């Protein structure tokens, strides 16, 4: 792993969009797409994006192929769940720390990535808003061997929480907001542009002796 490289950010984009009822990541969103806006925020923070796609999602692969700062990874078995997509993304990580998040969260502003990266934590860092856990989650690359060796059926949330994460509270609600349903999408395209909210006030991270669910 190389400290001179920008931090990587894995976007988990191999889901089936079952709650939306149709593919959602390339739906129009404020001049780009849902995934395009999510990736643009990470690139705006100076990160390198790793997009994990389904092997049959030709439209997504074509849309992001060859983009500066973007690497595509394919999960050959998306039916095995989110952990298998996470493993496919982790295999492409080059930096000493990396973020991951669902691909349908275009309201995370660039400032959140920079703030989380600046915190003095050596393990995973999970942002919270009003005590609710959100994304992106910052992970140390030292966990990669264990992640790649884990059975794909292990819940990703359980793996992260069992590693003793630090929680960092923010007033930014974009860390909680995803686009799962048609109503979510309608509200998102009718609302403010992503990243238009103010980050803060930010608090020093706190470490919980007991990891919650």
**Element pattern in H and E:** EEEHEHEHEHEEEHHEHE
| Total number of helices | 7
What overall geometry do the principal axes of the alpha carbons give? globular
How big a fraction of the residues is strand?
15-25%
Low-pLDDT parts are 194-205, 207-213
The helical percent reads 25-40%
**Which CATH class applies here?**
Alpha Beta
Per CATH, the superfamily is Spore Coat Polysaccharide Biosynthesis Protein SpsA, Chain A
Report the oligomer.
single chain
Task: Provide the residue-averaged pLDDT.
Answer: 86
Describe this structure in words.
The protein is α/β, with parallel strands linked by helices. It has a single domain (8-207), classed as Alpha-Beta Complex (Spore Coat Polysaccharide Biosynthesis Protein SpsA, Chain A), CATH 3.90.550.10. Helix content is 27%, strand content 21%. The chain has helices at 34-44, 58-64, 82-90, 110-118, 144-149, 156-161, 182-190; strands spanning 8-13, 28-29, 32-33, 48-53, 70-74, 97-102, 125-129, 132-133, 137-140, 166-169, 206-207. It has a 5-stranded mixed β-sheet with strand order 5-4-1-6-9, with helices on both faces. Strands 8-7-10-11 form a 4-stranded mixed β-sheet, with no helix packed on it. The chain is globular, with a radius of gyration of 16 Å. Residues 194-205 and 207-213 have low confidence and may be disordered.
